[in-house]
Specification:
With 170 residues, the chain is an all-alpha fold. The protein is built from five helices and no strands. α3 packs antiparallel against α5. The structure holds zinc ion. Zinc ion (ZN) binds next to loops. The site of zinc ion has 8 residues, from loops.
Length: 170
Amino acid sequence: MSEEQRYRPDDECPLFSERLEELLVAVTRGESPNAGRFCGYCYHPLGEWTRVCPHCGMGTDQRAPVDSVPEEIIEMLRAQRQTESRIVNAFAYAGLIIAVLAGLALVLGIPFLRANLIWATVVYAVVLLIGGRGLAGWLGGYYGDRIGYERARRALRERWAAWLVERDAA
Ligand SMILES: [Zn+2]
């Protein structure tokens, strides 16, 4: 899924703009300081003189920019990415297991292969290498990516809604 598709304004949560996500990944890795000028609503990085957040449309006079991203927001991104990759991996493993079982069924199901160990091994290796990789990539990259994104996004929306209540009560 491309970065542009990741953020959809209709899902009620302005996290995470592409630039913010990139920055927070760098912060998490210790490659970038958590400092700058950020939208006070969605934490999109703002230029020094930017007066309206290009990501969520919040004016800096409506909500003052902040100079660092709250730890809770960084934690939300970490959780989102963990959920996504866990589900992508689960689907990829499922693809691999399907290839293992289908390869076994093939080798055991064809009398010629059952009787010829070398050919059986070759066929099994090919099924595993090509089928396993293909299925893992397809299931992980297509279904895993979609389902992982939806699930991670749902959790993020709930967390964002709770965070808004907490933040704006303070
Ligand atoms: Zn914003």
